[in-house]
Write a structure and sequence with these properties.
Blueprint lengths: L1 H104 L2 H5 L1 H53 L7 E5 L1 H11 L3 H4 L4 E4 L3 H4 L8 E5 L9 H10 L7 E4 L9 H7 L4 E4 L2 H17 L10
Parallel strand pairs: 1-2, 1-3, 3-4, 4-5
């Protein structure tokens, strides 16, 4: 009897040991998988940084080449004009000298028409010079226009670089709006990786007093958790769209998971009036938060987009 009890106790110990081993293996595998996803996101972020640096260097190189081309063309054009005037003046002087020589010494008829020929030649020269002056002004105007465009392009590019350098999504302030149940789900699951990359966002429940006093000016990005009815419409989202019309530079990111949460009908039409982006998984929620934040930092507010 004692022997049977000892054997049973040993079997129980073996089963417990095997169970603990399996649980440890599963936890380690899940941790490794999560770390791999996070590393992939970080690598994607570094790739975007390197890609923007390469584009910036390429644009700077093209600007330098174009500026050098404009300067060289202007010098060549000026030298051409000066050379043409010199050759034209020398040729006219030579013709006048020939006509004068033959007019006084040989042909009486040519001598009598010398004044007329000189007048015609002078008129042609003046006409040619006036045309050259017009062409020079046109060419200089084109150069000035090209220089202005180049300056504008450089300013726009520099503005883009400044915005990109300062638009670090990790420093942004975000708010998540939705009903209590969906916000609780996001805190437990969808925002697990989100808070590892960004700051913990604020949460506002629909129908709360905080929702009635919500001010988008206090945030860089508004994230709305979709809560559509059976028609795919969401009246709370439509109210938020109306509120954001007072802040056209504030982006709206709508988070809708699966076909049952897709925005449809009237709400879909109203959503197109706003400065919005969509996300349907925790990964796209992170990726589109970065994109929306940076785009909002780069673009100017639309002066025509006002609440009527």
């Amino acid at each position: 009897m004692k022997y049977d009890n000892i054997m049973e106790m040993r079997q129980v110990k073996h089963i417990l040991a095997f169970t603990l081993f399996c649980l440890g293996t599963l936890c380690y595998a899940q941790s490794t998988k999560d770390n791999a996803k996070l590393q992939a996101i970080e690598k994607h972020y570094e790739y975007l940084e390197n890609e923007m640096k390469a584009q910036r260097d390429a644009i700077q190189k093209e600007n330098e080449t174009y500026r050098k081309f404009i300067q060289e063309e202007r010098v060549v054009h000026r030298e051409f004009i000066e050379y043409t005037i010199k050759i034209g003046g020398g040729f006219i002087a030579f013709v006048l000298g020939i006509l004068t020589f033959w007019g006084f010494d040989t042909f009486k008829g040519i001598r009598n028409s010398r004044t007329e020929i000189e007048s015609i030649a002078t008129a042609k020269f003046i006409e040619y010079k006036e045309q050259m002056d017009i062409n020079t002004k046109l060419y200089e105007a084109q150069i000035d226009e090209a220089k202005s465009k180049l300056v504008a392009a450089e300013q726009s590019y520099q503005k883009f670089i400044n915005y990109y350098s300062s638009a670090n999504p990790r420093t942004g302030r975000f708010v998540v709006i939705g009903n209590a149940e969906r916000l609780q789900q996001m805190k437990k699951n969808d925002l697990y990786r989100f808070v590892q990359i960004f700051n913990m966002p604020d949460f506002i429940e629909l129908g709360s007093e905080e929702w009635s006093d919500f001010d988008p000016a206090n945030y860089d990005l508004v994230i709305y958790r979709s809560n559509v009815n059976e028609k795919g419409e969401d009246d709370k989202l439509e109210s938020l769209i109306d509120l954001l019309k007072l802040h056209p530079d504030k982006p709206l990111l709508v988070y809708a998971k699966g076909q049952t949460e897709f925005i449809k009908g009237q709400t879909d039409q109203r959503l197109k009036e706003s400065f919005f982006h969509m996300a349907n998984t925790p990964v796209t929620l992170i990726d589109n938060t970065i994109t929306s934040y940076r785009v909002a930092k780069m673009v100017e507010p639309n002066p025509h987009q006002k609440l009527i």
